[in-house]
Q: What sequence folds into this?
């Protein structure tokens, strides 16, 4: 009789998460971010062709856009939070209550800033904006009132859709938003008599409301057929663990959005203030186009790191995105298409086009760094150590502040170039910190995947 074999039975090797599956999740989100990034260049191109373009572009980038981003900052990370936490119906309902309350409170704050004397305190005393843009910007800020609540509602429901495998719906929503933007911008351009800031703010507001309505309708079958039947999570979401998870993310977003008014205030106090503010809007719009492809990676990493042996191919996608976006940025800065984009498509004057092209060289590292930031941040959020992201943003903001302060004190260089340099140096220090602090989470993932491959 044969003796029983006492050797342990070999473990079944788990197949790694395929690159095809990662790409099928990433590309709809990337298209969504890319389409959303087209919103800024579209708006700038139309406003630049209306009356007094320098004033209205400067009003948008110097006051309206920075304040809108700052006010919405506590809810902008709802996309990541919902993607990570909307695992069962109870968690979703608790997150929804938070989203609605936060949206209402922040919309009230927006109205207080736009419609009371507080506006002049912020725009004149804190930002120090040029006098020419103060009143136009106020009209733009009033028209942007629906922005915050719409963004909160949309990002929250998009997170649930991503969690349950419906990332393509996010891209469709962005197409709807961009189409609504385009209709309002086209009408403003054809009419020709409406102030540029009114056309721009009206277009953006109509776009985000349209996308929010679509997200609310599209998420219904996901809730009914997938989220409600999902088994309850082992550890129910409580107020305490949600606050511990989300507070660092909200602080991260708040600190990040503080950069916009900080840059506006600094540029307003440096040489060529009006020109710098006008070009800053157009330049940021172009750079955001390339960064958008990497922004989508963040949610993909959060959603897919639970899958077996996912880290290897997610890291490979990160490196690929970094190389490709950096190459496109370099080609644009070094070849004639850069002048074509700023001079013809964006309709900047020859002087402003030259400023934008030089600023593009200074911002050259940004798209590549953005890809690695999304990878590190996704791994950190997956590990639930979200305070690290707040630390990184604080370092980013501090670095920016030092460079901007030095430029303002020196007072010899156009604000656009100082702002671009501050942004690049800040991104470099932020990425370095995320890399350093994400190493424990990445080591854990490597150990898990090695065990799964045994």
A:
């Amino acid at each position: 009789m044969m003796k029983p074999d006492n050797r342990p039975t070999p473990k079944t090797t788990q197949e790694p998460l395929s690159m095809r599956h990662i790409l099928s999740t990433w590309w709809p989100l990337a298209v969504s971010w890319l389409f959303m990034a087209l919103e800024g260049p579209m708006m700038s191109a139309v406003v630049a062709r209306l009356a007094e373009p320098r004033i209205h572009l400067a009003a948008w980038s110097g006051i309206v856009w920075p304040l809108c981003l700052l006010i919405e900052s506590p809810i902008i990370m709802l996309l990541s939070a919902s993607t990570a936490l909307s695992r069962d119906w109870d968690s979703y309902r608790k997150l929804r209550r938070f989203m609605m309350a936060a949206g209402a409170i922040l919309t009230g704050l927006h109205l207080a800033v736009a419609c009371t004397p507080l506006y002049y305190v912020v725009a004149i005393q804190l930002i120090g904006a040029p006098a020419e843009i103060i009143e136009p910007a106020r009209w733009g800020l009033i028209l942007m009132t629906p922005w915050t609540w719409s963004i909160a509602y949309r990002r929250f429901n998009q997170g649930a859709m991503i969690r349950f495998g419906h990332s393509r719906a996010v891209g469709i929503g962005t197409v709807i938003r961009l189409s609504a933007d385009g209709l309002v911008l086209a009408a403003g351009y054809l009419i020709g008599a409406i102030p540029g800031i009114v056309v721009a703010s009206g277009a953006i507001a109509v776009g985000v409301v349209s996308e929010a309505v679509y997200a609310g309708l599209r998420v219904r079958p996901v809730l009914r057929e997938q989220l409600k039947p999902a088994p309850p999570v082992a550890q129910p979401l409580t107020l305490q663990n949600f606050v511990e998870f989300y507070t660092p993310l909200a602080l991260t977003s708040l600190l990040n959005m503080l950069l916009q008014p900080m840059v506006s205030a600094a540029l307003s106090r440096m040489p060529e203030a009006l020109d710098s503010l006008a070009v800053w809007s157009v330049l940021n719009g172009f750079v955001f186009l390339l960064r958008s492809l990497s922004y989508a990676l963040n949610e993909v990493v959060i959603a897919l790191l639970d899958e077996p042996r996912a880290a290897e191919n997610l890291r490979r996608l990160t490196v690929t995105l970094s190389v490709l976006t950096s190459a496109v940025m370099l080609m644009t800065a070094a070849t004639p298409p850069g002048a074509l984009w700023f001079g013809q498509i964006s309709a900047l004057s020859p002087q402003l086009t030259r400023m934008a092209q030089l600023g593009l060289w200074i911002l050259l590292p940004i798209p590549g760094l953005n890809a690695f930031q999304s990878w590190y941040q996704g791994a950190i959020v997956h590990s639930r150590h979200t305070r690290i992201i707040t630390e990184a943003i604080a370092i980013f903001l501090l670095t920016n502040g030092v460079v901007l302060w030095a430029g303002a004190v020196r007072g010899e260089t156009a604000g656009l170039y100082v702002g671009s340099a501050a942004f690049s140096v800040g991104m470099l220090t932020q990425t370095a910190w995320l890399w350093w602090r994400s190493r424990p989470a990445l080591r854990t993932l490597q150990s898990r995947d090695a065990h799964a491959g045994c």
About this structure: The two ends are 32 Å apart (CA to CA). The chain has a mean pLDDT of 88. The chain has one domain: 19-452.
